User: Which sequence fits this backbone?
């Protein structure tokens, strides 16, 4: 049986806007058993992460094709105006022109590119980006992670092509991650339009989009957390450990995998990057409720933090 | 370092101490408060929009950590007593296939529980619990009252915790 009063306080205090701590104190003081009931329920709440299934959201094929359902309405309506203007298609043919050049970084290396139009692009490790000498308003992210600080020009929007998708800026700072399994974008300033000619999903600052095995999803992200790798830290709100392990690998230039049990877990918080992987994992793994084990040149993240086992002596 | 947060801490020291005692800290309340102070001094947090709720939350998190580590220790001691410590397990061993199947079955079961609650309850729960959106914002988004959102959340939580307890005893 669930203690209803304690459950109500769990829900109340879990709200990011909760501020009536005095009322909570008074309730707790009523009976010492209340604090215990609250602790027990909070612990169960924390363990729910492992069993809450991801939520794939089916997307309409085209923005004007399907009448938005109630579900889509609340998800997308907040994004504001859907891009009305269509932009020129990025043709496959132009990718092969001599004006196209690519910029790459090795794992663990970062690089900053300043374009003549005032746009800057920062590449995280193990990343490949293609640019066009003839068209400063275009970039293709083939692999890895890049943060874009775009000089906005409404008449000539900056476009980033990622796999089959196109992101179009509307005055913007945003970060894109592209791996063979997933594409993720977070917007920290301005607005980005995802696939302006198809779904045309507007992503204002504080919104993120992920396209992976679970489908296409839009979620909230703390604007300050976007592209935080540039400041030597990774900031997450309820992020999948699978994604985080890839971010760590890219940022530190090491191979990181996670066991299926660890992959099913989620993490909220800030991880400070450290060039020394052993020192990094000794601090970061327990923070995520994980332990890290060195396997050859790779690191494996496992469920459960064991204080004894996370700093191998090798 | 005399940031606003430290000043707010000092001004509300008594209230925070009372909260920690009510939360079950007992004789350790003073020590925990000292821990909080050290953390505040060590970290340059910059301006925090709602400093007092921030400090209360910090205190609450300290107590949650304490509960978690003590229950983990109990579990470890119990494992030791039962001789099931798993000390010999290969640390590099990946999760077994059957464990993975169980994990997927659990996710399916949870999916079923959420579906049966109805679309609005599921939506409210996901928005609150997974995406961390406040109840007031959810109520505005859906155009329903705050009470409705509260009731939906309680319903979803009851169902999910019941499922959790059932899975734990399987």
Assistant:
């Amino acid at each position: 049986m669930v203690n209803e009063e304690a459950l109500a306080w769990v829900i109340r205090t879990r709200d990011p806007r909760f501020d009536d701590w005095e009322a909570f104190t008074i309730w707790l003081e009523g009976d010492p058993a209340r604090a215990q009931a609250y602790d027990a329920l909070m612990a169960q709440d924390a363990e729910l992460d492992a069993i809450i299934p991801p939520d794939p959201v089916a997307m309409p094929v085209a923005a004007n094709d399907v009448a938005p359902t109630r579900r889509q309405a609340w998800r997308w309506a907040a994004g504001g105006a859907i891009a009305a203007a269509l932009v020129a298609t990025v043709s496959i043919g132009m990718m092969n022109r001599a004006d196209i050049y690519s910029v790459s970084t090795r794992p663990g290396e970062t690089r900053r590119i300043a374009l003549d139009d005032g746009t800057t692009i920062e590449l995280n490790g193990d990343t490949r980006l293609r640019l066009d000498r003839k068209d400063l308003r275009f970039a293709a992210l083939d692999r890895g992670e890049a943060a874009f600080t775009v000089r906005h020009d409404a008449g000539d929007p900056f476009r980033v092509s990622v796999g089959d998708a196109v992101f179009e800026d509307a005055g913007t700072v945003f970060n894109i991650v592209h791996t063979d399994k997933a594409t993720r974008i977070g917007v920290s300033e301005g607005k980005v339009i995802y696939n302006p000619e198809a779904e045309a999903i507007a992503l204002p600052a504080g919104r993120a989009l992920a396209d992976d095995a679970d489908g296409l999803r839009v979620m909230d992200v703390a604007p300050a957390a976007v592209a935080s790798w540039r400041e030597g830290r990774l900031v997450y709100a309820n992020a999948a450990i699978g994604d985080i392990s890839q971010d760590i690998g890219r940022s530190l230039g090491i191979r990181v995998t996670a066991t299926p049990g660890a992959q099913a877990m989620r993490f909220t918080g800030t991880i400070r990057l450290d060039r020394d992987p052993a020192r990094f994992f000794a601090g970061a793994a327990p923070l995520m409720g994980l332990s890290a084990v060195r396997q050859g040149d790779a690191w494996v993240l496992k469920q459960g933090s064991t204080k004894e086992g996370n700093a191998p002596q090798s | 370092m005399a940031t606003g947060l430290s000043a707010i801490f000092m001004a509300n020291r008594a209230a925070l101490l009372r909260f920690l005692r009510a939360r079950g800290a007992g004789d350790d309340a003073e020590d925990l408060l000292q821990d909080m102070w050290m953390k505040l001094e060590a970290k340059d947090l910059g301006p925090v929009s709602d400093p007092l709720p921030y400090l209360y939350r910090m205190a609450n998190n300290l107590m949650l950590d304490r509960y978690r580590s003590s229950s983990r220790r109990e579990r470890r001691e119990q494992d030791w007593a039962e001789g099931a410590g798993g000390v010999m397990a290969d640390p590099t061993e990946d999760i077994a296939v059957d464990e993975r199947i169980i994990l997927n079955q659990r996710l399916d079961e949870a999916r079923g529980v959420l579906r049966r609650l109805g679309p609005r309850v599921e939506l409210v729960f996901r928005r609150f619990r997974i995406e961390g959106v406040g109840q007031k914002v959810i109520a505005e988004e859906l155009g329903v009252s705050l009470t409705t959102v509260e009731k939906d959340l309680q319903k979803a939580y009851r169902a999910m915790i019941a499922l959790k307890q059932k899975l734990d005893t399987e």
Remarks:
- Helices of chain A lie at 4-14, 21-29, 32-47, 70-77, 241-252, 260-263, 277-287.
- The longest helix of chain A spans residues 32-47.
- The longest strand of chain A covers residues 138-149.
